[in-house]
Amino acid sequence: MSEVDVIIRDLKAQRGFSSYMIMNNDGIIIKYDNVEYRRALHIAGLVLDLACKAKGAVRDLLEPHENDVESMRIKTRDYELIVGQSGNFTLVVVQQQGHQMPSVAAQPLGSVSGKKSDGIVK
Predict the structure, then answer these.
(1) pLDDT tens for residues 91-112?
(2) How far apart are CA 27 and CA 90, in angstroms?
């Protein structure tokens, strides 16, 4: 079992877990679960745009300019989005609000292959 599969298994075991998606930084969905593919594409575009803007803002606000955004948590009344980027990959986890997710977004995603059967784009 790959490092990515272990992380996803652990995420799914958490109370409040709703869905996840892994994409490359071009917005191509590699893995997803509990979300329709079209919705995953929409989320991917919005999250990657938000991450790009957040990185620019952090570089402008904080010294040294090498500071970079590694993960973000976005809370709404009903849900929380956890976004983590590592290399050319982005992990987005959606959970129901009121449940705490462990800090896995900062863990490296390792090598991601599109070979798993549930929710995989081939």
Answers:
(1) 999 999 765 555 544 444 444 4
(2) 9
pTM of the model: 0.74
Q: For 102, which DSSP code?
A: P
Long-range CB contact pairs, 30-37, < 8 A, 24+: 30/89, 30/112, 30/114, 30/120, 30/121, 31/4, 31/112, 31/114, 31/116, 31/119, 31/120, 31/121, 32/119, 32/121, 33/8, 33/118, 33/119, 34/119, 35/94, 35/119, 37/119, 37/121
Write the single-letter amino acid at 30. Answer: I
Average pLDDT, the chain: 82
